[in-house]
Design brief:
Blueprint (H helix, E strand, L loop, with lengths): L2 H16 L4 H10 L12 H9 L7 E3 L2 E2 L7 E2 L6 E3 L9 H15 L4 H15 L4 H6 L7 H6 L2 H8 L8 H4 L1
Antiparallel strand pairs: 1-4, 2-3
Helix pairs in contact: 2-3, 5-8
């Protein structure tokens, strides 16, 4: 595709993976900048999701994902009937970057328990000696934005986890 479209696709991956932005925020940002999709429409969360989950962006062609007989409605084929041709063309993003985005989607969808979330704060403290929003986002747990929603604030969550006191050290937790 055109260089400007390829740049937008790569930027979507940066916004999603590196900047931890949600699909809707990415769409809002692109629209605020006056950018349009390849069809000339505004960006939506659904279109951003398609960019982040469609293997064509790593150079894979997919065939037989659906079927339609004459005068009938189209229906999806099961994934075992799909035909995949990897490296059919040069991808816009690397396979590693694409897989990272898929893993990040799975992580964001996980329903964390209160205890799991508090354990993540403790783990960050043990590993780094301190707990910061950047360290929380860099880990494998939920986004830092999840804590205020669950615990009525990040400080409250840190207090419940026992990691907010400056006197706590790695030795205190382990």
């Amino acid at each position: 595709g055109p260089d400007d479209e390829l740049a937008i696709v790569r930027r979507i991956y940066v916004m999603y993976i590196d900047m931890h932005m949600a699909d809707i925020r990415i769409a809002q940002q692109l629209n605020a900048e006056g950018l349009r999709t390849d069809t000339g429409r505004g960006w939506t969360a659904h279109v951003v999701k398609q960019v982040l989950t469609n293997e064509k962006y790593v150079g894979t062609m997919m065939f037989n994902r659906s079927t339609q007989h004459m005068r009938s409605t189209r229906r999806a084929n099961s994934p075992d009937r799909w035909i995949r041709r990897e490296n059919s063309f040069t991808g816009v993003v690397s396979r590693e970057r694409f897989d990272h985005a898929l893993a990040e989607r799975a992580r964001r969808r996980k329903q964390w328990t209160d205890d799991e979330m508090l354990d993540i704060l403790r783990d960050v403290l043990v590993e780094h000696g301190t707990v910061t929003p950047d360290l929380i986002n860099a880990g494998v747990g939920p986004s830092v934005k999840s804590f205020p929603h669950r615990f009525n604030g990040l400080v409250a969550a840190m207090t419940l986890a026992g990691v907010s006191s400056p006197s706590l050290s790695r030795d205190t937790i382990t």
